[in-house]
């Protein structure tokens, strides 16, 4: 298990973070830019030393300990931690070929002949899985951004790390390349039983990759849970907003959060979809005029201007309401439709109006 206790001053806030990650699992730090995500990875990897208080335990051993509550200061240098680290801006060695960059971490002199032979097979498998064979003789300056990331991932995987730190390594890639890289990482993680700490500000990537997501903002982990539990039970409005919820709905003294992906569009109450809602404990209905259609991550999103006369709530939403449209649905600009949100989570910690 990986355990971290950290107090770290930053320019605009003071980080205070505690989390524990089971061995062989993927934990994601999800949040906006400048929330402190990369600082945590820098501390774990051994490149950040400006902390007030810190303790890192990995698999029963203390890698780092410092601060007022420590019995004695302990520090394991970065090169002894056995950690793989992959960032968005990959620093491949410019004077080495792709082959030599990948093989840099192998160091066959440390192994027996049998172990060296196994390492060679492992190297060839990684090269094949990442489709790097045609590029092994090239230098980094000859590679595209996607190929550079694949070479860097191969270099990080060759030593078979038990702990891998991924700092938004796929954010600059196109959708197809990003999806391929995610699948490769998940495949190797399952086979090696690696523990992975992933940093991202893309919610879809966090939900796909991680078993546990820690929502972080201004150096504080606001909530951590499974992807499904986070989306269905955000603890407060700040967490809900970071997860993509866009509106608070007041009904009977309670507030509910509305998310575009947790609603459907119906044209009238005779629509056959209405029959499907009877089994749910709560629904929110908002009638509105179609303002326009947006395309986001391959999904069509309807923007509705609420018609207050059609609202059955005492809380009128003035901003446009967003709701995802199914592939089989169609709406026209200016059309009056109803957005139905199914079992929206109740928000007990909400901003006062």
Q: What does this protein look like?
A:
The longest helix is centred in the middle third of the chain and has 18 residues, at 175-192. The chain is built from eight helices and 18 strands. With 353 residues, the chain is an alpha+beta fold. A hairpin with a 4-residue loop joins strand 1 (2-9) and strand 2. Mean pLDDT is 85; it is low at 309-317. Helix content is 23%, strand content 31%. The strands form four sheets. Strands 7-8-9-3-10-11 form a six-stranded mixed sheet, sandwiched between helices. The radius of gyration is 24 Å and the shape is globular. It folds into two domains: 2-232, Rossmann fold; 246-342, OB fold (Dihydrolipoamide Acetyltransferase, E2P) (Beta Barrel).
* Rg over alpha carbons: 24 Å
* Number of self-contained structural domains: 2
- Beta-strand residue percentage: 25-35%
Mean pLDDT: 85
CATH level 3 topology of the largest domain: Rossmann fold
CATH architecture name of the largest domain: 3-Layer(aba) Sandwich
Strand order of the largest sheet: 7-8-9-3-10-11
Element pattern in H and E: EEEHEEEEHHHEHEHEEHHEEEEEEE
If helices are DSSP runs of H or I spanning 4 or more residues, what is the number of helices?
8
CATH class of the largest domain: Alpha Beta
Number of strands: 18
Helix vs. strand class? alpha+beta
Give a quick account of the main beta sheet: strands, pairing sense, barrel closure.
Answer: 6 strands, mixed
The residue fraction in helices comes out at 10-25%
Which parts are unreliable, with pLDDT below 50 for 5 consecutive residues or more?
A: 309-317
Characterize the overall form: globular
Task: Supply the CATH superfamily name of the largest domain.
Answer: P-loop containing nucleotide triphosphate hydrolases
- In whole angstroms, the N-to-C terminal distance is 43 Å
